[in-house]
């Protein structure tokens, strides 16, 4: 159950320029509908739930790949960055993302993009638009900052 002490239903949402987010969300929705034949407009809650479970698993898998890529895929220490039992794990203490090769850094960024695809699927399955997401994100970010200023 969601926390009831931090509900956002009364949060004011402003309209920001979010055309790029609409484009990304529409692209992802069209991919799901045309490539994988999902028809979100006809899905019942059980079907959406099953879709979410699959996407949660896929998102989790992509996050694991992000952890592996954080250590570098070709030129770095690979998954030793998070595996303390590996010899190269100690090298992570003296490394930053600036130490990754350009190819490894690019791969890391693409793993984050892969994860974002699956995160967007949650939103598009309930017909949330990129503009809605963007505007709600900005509004919630402002609220989170205000909460911290007010000793939340």
Features:
single chain; 152 residues; 57% helix; mainly alpha; 4 helices
Strand content: under 5%
Number of strands: 0
Summing up helix and strand content along with how strands pair, one would put the structural category as mainly alpha
In whole angstroms, how far apart are the ends?
20 Å
Q: What sequence of helices (H) and strands (E) makes up the elements? A: HHHH
Poorly predicted regions: none
Could you explain the architecture of this structure?
It contains four helices and no strands. It is mainly α and about 150 residues long.
Lay out the secondary structure:
Blueprint: H1 19-36, H2 45-70, H3 102-124, H4 130-149
């Amino acid at each position: 159950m969601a926390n009831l002490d931090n509900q956002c239903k009364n949060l004011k949402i402003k309209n920001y320029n979010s055309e790029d987010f609409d484009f990304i969300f529409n692209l992802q929705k069209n991919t799901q509908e045309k490539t994988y034949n999902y028809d979100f407009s006809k899905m019942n809650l059980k079907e959406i739930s099953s879709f979410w479970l699959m996407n949660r698993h896929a998102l989790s898998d992509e996050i694991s790949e992000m952890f592996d890529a954080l250590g570098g895929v070709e030129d770095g220490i690979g998954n030793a960055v998070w595996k303390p039992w590996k010899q190269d794990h100690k090298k992570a203490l003296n490394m930053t993302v600036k130490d990754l090769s350009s190819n490894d850094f690019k791969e890391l960024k693409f793993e984050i993009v892969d994860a974002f695809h699956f995160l967007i699927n949650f939103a598009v399955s309930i017909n949330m638009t990129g503009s809605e997401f963007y505007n709600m994100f900005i509004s919630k970010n402002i609220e989170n900052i205000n909460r911290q200023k007010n000793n939340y």
